[in-house]
Design a protein that fits this description.
46% of the residues lie in helices and 15% in strands. It has a seven-stranded parallel beta sheet, with helices on both faces. Helix 5 links the parallel strand 5 and strand 6. Helix 4 packs parallel to helix 5.
């Protein structure tokens, strides 16, 4: 069975993607900071009959990243690495004049530095996989200038560029940065708590991610809405 590591997998998009892969028979290594919620997610996936290892921890911890990759190795390797864990830098979001440098550092550490660290840890196994792939969950804030989204958007823009360069440096892999669009997640609620406009459930965009895995287009940046409409 193919093996995926998914960070930030206890809820939201990470959980929805984990469920979709479990339904396809993938073995999973799941990460999140909140142990109880992560264990509940893992228990819910047992019905699919796949192997699931849930490791609570912080992706900024090098030891935790190593344990994630070791768990995948015990399942047989790493076919897919999904960097979904994210930090906003401020909750709720604030204008740049109010953004603390500590908050910006946290966003960069989680969204960029830890994502690269996990790729570096997993790279030998990804290269050995028959169809190794990396998905970096991006944001439209990486490409558009939205008030108060500066710190988070800057971190996601940096993640996009790392993914683009990794795709060039590792032609044997597929490296996709994916903008899922605005979703009904706890992260969005924390970012903009006063915005109660309806947004899609994360499960609604999972088919876009599955399309990438099925069709394996060239490494690059993709938007989930376009993939769902059959465009690239």
């Amino acid at each position: 069975m193919p093996v995926a590591i998914i960070t930030g997998a206890s809820k939201g998009l990470g959980r929805a993607l984990a469920e979709a892969l479990a339904a396809r028979g993938w073995d999973l290594v799941l990460d999140a900071r909140t142990a109880g919620v992560l264990q509940e997610t893992a228990a819910g996936l047992e019905a699919y009959g796949t192997r699931v290892t849930a490791l609570p921890g912080d992706v900024t911890d090098a030891g935790h990243r190593a344990r994630l990759v070791e768990a995948a190795w015990r399942f047989g390797g790493v076919d897919l690495l999904v960097s979904n864990a994210s930090a906003l830098g401020a909750e709720p979001l604030v204008r740049l004049e109010e953004l603390t440098l500590e908050g910006l550092r946290r966003a960069l550490e989680v969204n960029v530095v830890a994502a690269l660290g996990l790729v570096q840890e997993a790279l030998p196994l990804l290269r050995a996989a028959e169809a190794g792939a990396v998905i970096a969950v991006s944001s439209d804030a990486a490409a558009e200038a939205y008030e108060t989204w500066g710190g988070y958007g800057a971190s996601k823009a940096a993640l996009d560029h790392l993914a683009a360069v990794l795709g060039v440096e590792e032609p044997g892999l597929r490296v996709w940065a994916v903008d899922p669009g605005d979703l009904a997640t706890d992260l969005y609620t924390a970012a903009v708590p006063d915005d109660d406009d309806p947004r899609p459930d994360p499960a609604e965009v999972v088919p876009a991610f599955l399309r990438l895995l099925d069709e394996r287009p060239a490494s690059g940046r993709y938007g989930a809405p376009a993939l769902l409409e059959g465009r690239r």
